[in-house]
Amino acid sequence: MKLFKNIKSWFVDLLKVWRREFKLVFSDVGVMLFFFALPTAYPVVYTLIYNPELVKNIPVVVIDDSRTSESRELTRMVDATDAIAVYDYAANLQDARRIMNSHECFGILHIPHDYSKKLGRGEQSVVSFYSEMSLLLRYRAFLSALTDVQLALGSKIQTQLIDSAGLPGQMVSGTPIESESIMLGDPSQGFASFVIPGIIVLILQQSLILGVTMLAGASNERRRRNNGTDPLAIPAPPAISVIGKTLCYLTLYAPLTLYILHIVPEAFSLPHLGNIFDYVIFIMPMLIASSFLGMSIGAFVLERESSLLVVVFSSVVFLFLSGLTWPRYAMSPFWTLVGDLIPATWGVEGFIRLNSNNASLIQNSTPYLMMWLLAAIYFVTAVTLRYVVMRTGNPRRNGYEKLYS
């Protein structure tokens, strides 16, 4: 009988903590901004910034000092690419730079006077290209297009040289082995399709941690004003407090997760091969671990505003440690270990596999289990720090009372 009474009391306290946390969230404008406005607006803003994913028909000025049929052929091949459009011809580099400075073009192609002569002698000719670097997407498009032209033109010249040597026609080929690039997970080779699936997972984690730490900072402020006790807190054991708050956050983030991981990629035609149920099942331990991590950090956040300095600054660091912009295998062991301790690191890796490469949950067992492991670790730290706060108030309260007295 006593056992059932204790179980009932446990669930009643859990429900009280869950309900009180709801009231605290919806009574704090700053927390509502982090919990709702940030994850709602940021994915759309980021995606709009990187759309359209590919830049095409970028105007380029040509300086043709050779004025031969070979140089005109090179110009036609460059103009025929999707990325480059020949805007005008210039007499010299100074005139071309004047056009670029007025933003009428974003690149300069300089064909030297000895271009045709060197090709005729079988020598290598150097063609210079100058790119305006205000947008890296344009530079990437220039580099890809010019590389394709170089390979195609080199193959044609090699074929002509072999043909002139009198070899049989079936042996005349500049590319004996044809190659084709297939970008798995990013068929359009667009920057948004590459980076946005990882960023939206990081937004989920950071917005949750921001809101949780701001709530913790507000609670610590109330403790300082009330001799180490928070009048709005439910007097429940540490484990019940931590679990009840996390259940509140999961309830709030359920529709946001559906919006960020499913609706945003669908709306912007980003790679979206996985199943929404797999997304929810996979991302659940990351949200739980992020909630526990936020409560662990919150024990040391003394003011509401301090959460901005701690969490916002770490967003760029977490982005790099996730392996999205720099491969994790190329990092030092120290930074690899730091990345392993961040829930979003495993969330980004697994979600990209699910979303872009249509992997199954079984194939994502390593990141999935790692997120549950981090959830267990941060649960212990959150409960421990919560116990310390309940027994002694804020761990650093005594040192700060002098500042506020």
Task: List the keywords.
mainly alpha; four-stranded mixed beta sheet; abc type-2 transporter like fold; 4 strands; disordered C terminus; about 400 residues; 14 helices; single chain; 2 domains
Low-confidence stretches: 394-405
Amino- and carboxy-terminal Cα gap: 50 Å
Bin the helical content: 55-70%
Q: How would you classify the helix and strand content by structural class? A: mainly alpha
Which sequence of strands runs across the widest sheet? 2-1-3-4
Number of helices: 14
How many individual β-strands? 4
What value does the average pLDDT take? 85
Task: Please outline what is shown here.
With 405 residues, this protein is mainly alpha-helical. It is built from 14 helices and four strands. Helices cover 65% and strands 5% of the residues.
What does this entry look like structurally?
- With 405 residues, the protein is mostly helical.
- Helix content is 65%, strand content 5%.
- Strand 1, helix 3 (69-79) and strand 2 (84-89) form a beta-alpha-beta unit.
- A four-stranded mixed beta sheet has the order 2-1-3-4, sandwiched between helices.
- Helix 7 (191-225) runs parallel beside helix 9, helix 7 (191-225) runs antiparallel to helix 12 and helix 8 (238-267) crosses helix 9 (276-298).
- The chain has two domains: 2-51 and 190-404, no CATH class; 58-171, abc type-2 transporter like fold.
- The protein is elongated.
